[in-house]
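stage 2 :: seqdesign
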């Protein structure tokens, strides 16, 4: 490409000099003028919008002042309430301190009461245990007494009815004893009761009734009438026969005076009373001895041909042959087992402890 050389100043034609700055300056000023106008319009618009606030500055200031005063008043009220709350808190803390001290004292008292209550409970428990043990001992003593009475009634006195009643009371008492160790006594006790129930009737009540009736019958028995046969008199007796009549009498044919008859009757009644006493005690030897003695007295003193005398002798013979005991039962087995159990338990338990001393401390 060919470049065209710019003409130099010497080559340019001479012309009238023209100043090019006014045109360029005018083009550069207009944007600034427009900018100023725009800024001025905007400022005028802003000022026009802000004109109402400028119209009421005093009222706004007054409202702010009132609001500020209200806030200050509220702050002061809150300060006063806060001071009051702090005072109440201080009082509450002081009361809480006092209550804490009181609660500490109450706690100590409660601990003391709890300790005393525990001691009292221990003492009451110990006393209750001693009471139960004492009640058990009394029940066992009563049971042993009843069994001993049954044994004595049955073995010594042969009173089976009384022995059965004693065993019945013993069984009722044993049923009330709740100790498990003594439950084993129920079987032998029931066996003794069953053995007594299987025995025959006691012969002594009938014998007692017969002898009592015989004592009442003695007063009506007829006396023996002696046939006094005189022996042949000797020579001397023949000489004295006009003056004295002498006869030899045997002991059986001797005439008794009323006093002697009353004495012999009383002796017979005494023998029968002694027989009744032997019957009550179960003394068979004494019973038979007294009955034999009474029979001899009846046959000696009263008319043997009389029906009442014969009946009395027959009653005495039957009573002598009648045994006083009904054999076949052994009493006392339960009593021996009870005593052995009590001795075993007493040995294992040792001496009973002393009752605890009960002390109540004053708070």
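stage 2 :: out
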């Amino acid at each position: 490409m060919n470049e065209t050389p710019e003409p130099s100043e010497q080559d340019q034609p001479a012309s009238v000099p023209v100043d090019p700055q006014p045109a360029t300056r005018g083009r550069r000023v207009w944007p600034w003028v427009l900018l100023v106008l725009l800024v001025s319009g905007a400022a005028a618009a802003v000022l026009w919008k802000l004109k109402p606030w400028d119209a009421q500055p005093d009222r706004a200031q007054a409202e702010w002042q009132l609001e500020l005063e209200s806030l200050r008043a509220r702050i002061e009220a809150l300060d006063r309430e806060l001071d009051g709350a702090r005072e109440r808190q201080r009082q509450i803390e002081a009361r809480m301190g006092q209550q804490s001290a009181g609660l500490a004292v109450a706690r100590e008292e409660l601990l003391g009461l709890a300790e005393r209550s525990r001691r009292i409970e221990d003492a009451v428990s110990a006393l209750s245990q001693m009471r139960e043990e004492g009640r058990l001992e009394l029940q066992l003593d009563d049971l042993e007494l009843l069994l001993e009475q049954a044994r004595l009634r049955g073995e010594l006195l042969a009173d089976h009815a009384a022995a059965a009643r004693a065993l019945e009371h013993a069984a009722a008492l044993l049923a009330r004893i709740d100790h498990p160790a003594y439950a084993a006594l129920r079987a032998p006790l029931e066996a003794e009761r069953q053995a007594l129930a299987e025995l025959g009737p006691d012969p002594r009540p009938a014998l007692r009734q017969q002898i009592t009736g015989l004592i009442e019958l003695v007063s009506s028995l007829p006396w023996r009438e002696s046939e006094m046969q005189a022996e042949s008199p000797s020579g001397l007796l023949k000489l004295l026969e006009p003056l004295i009549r002498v006869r030899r009498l045997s002991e059986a044919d001797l005439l008794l005076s009323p006093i002697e008859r009353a004495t012999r009757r009383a002796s017979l009644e005494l023998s029968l009373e002694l027989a009744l006493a032997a019957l009550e005690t179960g003394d068979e030897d004494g019973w038979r001895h007294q009955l034999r003695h009474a029979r001899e007295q009846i046959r000696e003193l009263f008319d043997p041909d009389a029906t009442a005398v014969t009946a009395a002798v027959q009653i005495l013979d039957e009573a002598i042959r009648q045994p006083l005991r009904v054999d076949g039962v052994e009493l006392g087995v339960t009593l021996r087992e009870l005593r052995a159990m009590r001795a075993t338990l007493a040995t294992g338990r040792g001496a009973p402890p002393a009752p605890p001393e009960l002390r109540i401390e004053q708070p």
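stage 3 :: structure notes
- Residues 16 and 313 are 215 Å apart (CA to CA).
- The chain has a mean pLDDT of 76.
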